[in-house]
Amino acid sequence: MGFELTTKRIAVIMAVIAVVSVSAAFFYSYEVRYVPTDSMEAEDQPYDIPTIPQGSAILVSKFHSQSDVDSLEVGDIILFYNTGNKLDTVHRIIAITMDGDHISQVTTHGDNKTPGTNETVNSGDIQGKVVAVSEELGGVVHFVQNSTLFLVLIVVILLVMASVVWDMIKIRRSEGQ
After folding, report:
1. Residue 124 has what DSSP assignment?
2. For the chain, what are the domain ranges?
3. What tens digit of pLDDT does each residue of 2-44 get?
4. Strand intervals (E) in 3-149
5. φ, ψ for residue 165 (rounded to 5)?
């Protein structure tokens, strides 16, 4: 007999396909970051995301086009590349500069910063918009991003997948004899 697809094999194959598909879609659209400073920790602001405590995890919706940037509003919190200190920065938009129908620049400010310490950000330096905050998951995200744990997890998943494929090959060979 040839290779048989048992219910268990089908379930494993479907699970692997589902995990890979969902992961690819998620990581194309979103990014999880850790906020190491208190620049966004202040009294609650009257916006969807009132504040970001130091040590929080944030979920950033990545921007892939100018239309993503054009959806921004005053009060949104963005992730951008800060050309001054050469670091990615998370701050709140306090003003928007338009060029026709498109946003050309935004002015940002950390909620915990001294008044007058605003930063002007070109639309091309905006990486995404913060859509969720979790103070509770911050420690986990920090640990994963600063350790080899994530790499070990990937290696384990790849080994399991290789083991399943190897078992399938062995079964097929033994049935062919």
Report:
1. G
2. 27-137
3. 556 677 777 878 888 888 777 777 778 999 999 999 999 988 8
4. 30-34, 57-62, 77-82, 87-99, 102-109, 119-122, 126-134
5. -65, -45
Query: What is the fold, at CATH topology level, of the domain defined by 27-137?
Result: Umud Fragment, subunit A (2.10.109)
β-strand partners of 98: 103
Collapsing DSSP states into helix, strand and coil, what is residue 62? Answer: strand
Over residues 44-56, the mean pLDDT reads: 92
Record the pTM. 0.73
What is the per-residue burial (b if ≥16 Cβ within 10 Å, else e) of 60-69?
A: bbebeeeeeb
What is the pLDDT averaged over residues 108-117?
A: 86
pLDDT score at 58 = 95
For tokens 């405590």, the residue is 53
Q: How far apart are CA 129 and CA 146, in angstroms?
A: 23
User: What sign for the dihedral angle of Cα 131, 116, 46, 99?
Assistant: negative
